[in-house]
Amino acid sequence: MSQAVCVLDSLEQVSALLDPVRLKLHTLIAGGHARSAASAARLMGQPRQLVNYHLRTLEKAGLLEAVDERRRGNCVERLYRTSARAYLINPAILGELGVGNPGGPPVQDHASGTRLLEAAARTIRDVATLRATEVGAGDEPIACAFTVGVRFASAADRAAFIEDLTGEITKLVAEYQHVAAPDDRGYTFTVGGYPTPHQRDARRGEALRAVSASAEPSRELTAGNA
């Protein structure tokens, strides 16, 4: 059974998925039932041999899996489905160049979009490691996530909210912090806020992408470790 989210942990996976033809092929399979090279080739208007090559590349990278076989004349077709419903790239792939990775340049400004990106990247990297080491053994790591939208009457209210939130977090950390606790009881909490993108802007971006595609030639606010 395919998983909800697959974190891409290798350059092989990233390069396999981001090839334009393979990305289109993968999206086609993700949007419907399991498909064979022949059926995907018809829908894409590509030679079956070429599509079959791309399918094997995606399968080797762990992005597709063969789920069945059926005979068509003298040939046996393999049916493929995606290994996940959504994908995320692990910043750890970039090493010291990846934001939030050990050895990378620290971001000093806490109240900046860059700091929020750093925290988000670090979260992706760390949770991906937890999933790889614990979920495989049947132990789901205990994690939590909250997303809530707030509309402020004024910039002053927004500043007051951030100040109050910081104060409450500081009090909670002081109340529950136990420096003598074992390392396996350490948790990292990241709290961040950013302006909610307007749906109008999102739709405009989608429209611009659609026009661009049609023109192509066919072929943080951060709480510390608790």
Task: Annotate the secondary structure layout.
Blueprint: E1 3-8, H1 11-18, H2 20-30, H3 37-44, H4 48-60, E2 64-72, E3 75-82, E4 84-89, H5 113-134, H6 155-176, H7 199-215
Parallel strand pairs: 1-4
Antiparallel strand pairs: 2-3
Helix pairs in contact: 2-4, 3-4
Q: Kindly estimate the percentage of residues that lie in beta strands according to DSSP.
A: 5-15%
> What overall form do the CA principal axes indicate?
elongated
Secondary-structure element series: EHHHHEEEHHH
Structural class: alpha+beta
Oligomer: single chain
The tally of beta strands, per DSSP, is 4
Radius of gyration: 23 Å
pLDDT < 50 stretches: 214-226
Major sheet description? 2 strands, parallel
Helix content: 40-55%
> How many structurally independent domains?
2
N/C terminus separation: 35 Å
Write out the strand line-up for the largest beta sheet, numbering strands in chain order.
Answer: 1-4
How would you describe the overall organization of this protein?
It is built from 7 helices and 4 strands; from the N terminus they run E-H-H-H-H-E-E-E-H-H-H. The chain has 226 residues and is of the alpha+beta class. The chain folds into 2 domains: 3-87, Arc Repressor Mutant, subunit A (Orthogonal Bundle), CATH 1.10.10.10; 90-199, no CATH class. It has helices spanning 11-18, 20-30, 37-44, 48-60, 113-134, 155-176, 199-215, and strands at 3-8, 64-72, 75-82, 84-89. It is elongated. Helix 2 (20-30) crosses helix 4.
